[in-house]
Amino acid sequence: MAGRQPHSRAPPPSHMTAHHREIQGLLLDQKEMSAMHATLKQELAAADQELRKLSAAARKFREERESQIKELYEKSLKLETEVRAIEALNSEHTQVIGDIQKLTESKIQLTAQFKVLDTELSRVKMDASQVPEIQADVDKMEQELQKGRAAVEYEKKTRAANLELNEAMDRKMNSLQHDIEMLRAELANAEKRAREAAAASNPGMQFLTFPLKSVLPVQSVHNLGYTGNYESRSMAYGRGPYSVQYSMHQGQLMADSASLALYGRSVSHDPFDAQQPHVRKG
């Protein structure tokens, strides 16, 4: 199996034999190697086939494992959700227990309040039986109040009417006093003229003089109830024009007395009483 070599001398036989043995040995080795190679190739093919089977099995196992892992993960998520729901339910359960306790306490308080209200209701029912009497008293008080208001209004109107009447009487009294003063002045003048006329007609006769108070008493100034007996007073002035003039003044006084008589003959003669408000008796 040596390569080409240039022509040389033939090797010795011993060398050829050794070389032949070496070739035979190499051929045997080659056969063994070929057999081993075929065996290895078969083993490699078997191993490759086994590897493929193992790869398929591994792939299948991995898929199954991934599926199991996924399923376990989904189960874990589901369990986690259930755990959270359970925790929420536990929290709600705790809250419900607290609410039940509060409701129990409220029930106890409401029961006590109900008893109190029941007692008050019984008392109110007992008081309600007295409502007609109370209503009757209220109606009676309202009637009395209305009567009192009517009396107050009547008193106000009466007082106003009395005040107006007193003012009118005061004005009339002032007017009468003024007229009386004028009459006194006229009487004084008439008396003076009468004395002068009497002295002129009878120079030797002494004229009888009468004081003015005897003609018009002071009480007649304050007396509002003239009775008309003023004519009964004897005024002996004698004959002459004075008696006619005096009768005219006396008639004027009687007319004024008649006008005052409209306010009543029983009016007090005291000036202080004339200023007091007159209250009518109902």
From TrEMBL:
It comes from the Eukaryota. The keyword Acyltransferase does not apply. Residues 30-89, 151-200 form a coiled coil. GO terms for biological process: cell differentiation; flower development. Transmembrane segments: none annotated. Keywords: Coiled coil, Developmental protein, Differentiation, Flowering. Belongs to the FLX family. This is Uncharacterized protein. It comes from Chenopodium quinoa (Quinoa).
